[in-house]
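Section: Multi-chain targets

For targets with more than one molecule, the full set of components is provided together so that the structure can be written out for the assembly as a whole rather than chain by chain. Components appear in the order listed by the source. The example entry contains two components.
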Amino acid sequence: MSIFNPYSRNSQLGQQQPESSEFISDKQAEEESRTTSNLDYISPEAETLRQVKSGVSDFLGSLNADEFQDHLSPLSPGIQYLSLTDNADENHGALPSRGWSDDLCYGTGTAYLSGLGLGGLWGFVEGSRMPAKNFKIRLNGWLNAMTRRGPFLGNSLGVVALYYSSFYSIVGAMRDGKKDSITSVSAAGITGLLFKVPSGVRASFKAGVTSSILMAVYQLAVNYENTISDFDFRRIKQTA
Amino acid sequence: MRGSDTTRDPCPWVILNDAGGAFCMGAIGGGVWNFVKGGRNSPQGERFRGAVAAMRARGPVLGGNFGIWGGMFSTFDCAMRGIRQKEDPWNAIASGAITGGMLAIRGGWRTASVSAAFGGILLALIEGIGIGISRLSTGAQPPMAPLPPSPN
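Its structure, encoded as tokens over all components, is:
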């Protein structure tokens, strides 16, 4: 699971993914696009029906509306839609996850922007603590502190997310596309290891172990059942 | 919104995507660039260390600059779409100009307006190139043959 599991669209990436796209009826497609886009639009059938009913209702009084809908509408059965959301592995949550580039972009973007926001808040607090004679100096203090702390935290978090999402995809690909808790824990470990490499071997190992423990705790907290089944202890014992 | 661009994700979320994509582009590109530059500027025997130090110090900064540009651009683009209820190249050009101006606003009005013009021109170029490529790839319509004269 990627970090943003609770609000990303795939909670079951480890399970098999639909190989071929399935065809669905136009009613379903309409319903699906309405639910995914949250936009209300009049379906072509309904629109035609409304126009026709208001215009030549006397003529149509004799016609059966259901029959009309089945045979005369421009989108009568026979046209089948490709369901785009079927290819996205699961569809709850806002952030799509259709492959490594989605994971990378959304993961990094979320981390970067939230880091920027948190860092800005940190800078704001810091700027408020500084003594200031008048508002102009206070404003300058705020701006200075915020532009120092915001980009620092944002860039660091962004780079961590960049590492994590890349290794998440790489480890997942190396494990034949299995993207479960083990993948995220090992990706987190590699990320910590790599992020702290310049401060020495000891610090690097410490960071790697710490981050993988944190990720394991997070995974346990977020989806307890899947994580337990991912770490199938009996099978590990058998292979050992 | 029927007939809208279906290759991108729906609007509020695409901001995250754009910011992340731009950050990755900047961080990776800036990392490679500063790695090479730091290696070349370091004394013999310290080349690798110097290269890594330069990459760590400057790569994320470029990533951040790119990321904030992409994020703000996408935000303004979404806002433009929402306000104008239209999707055309002017959205992108206007949001490029606003982004450029906003990011340079601490330098004063002069700097900000120069930067805004630069952003607008850049986005106009990008949009123009995109339109040109799509025209080229569609191919010119063959001219229609004239109708044969009527027998009478």
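Chain B has a mean pLDDT of 86.
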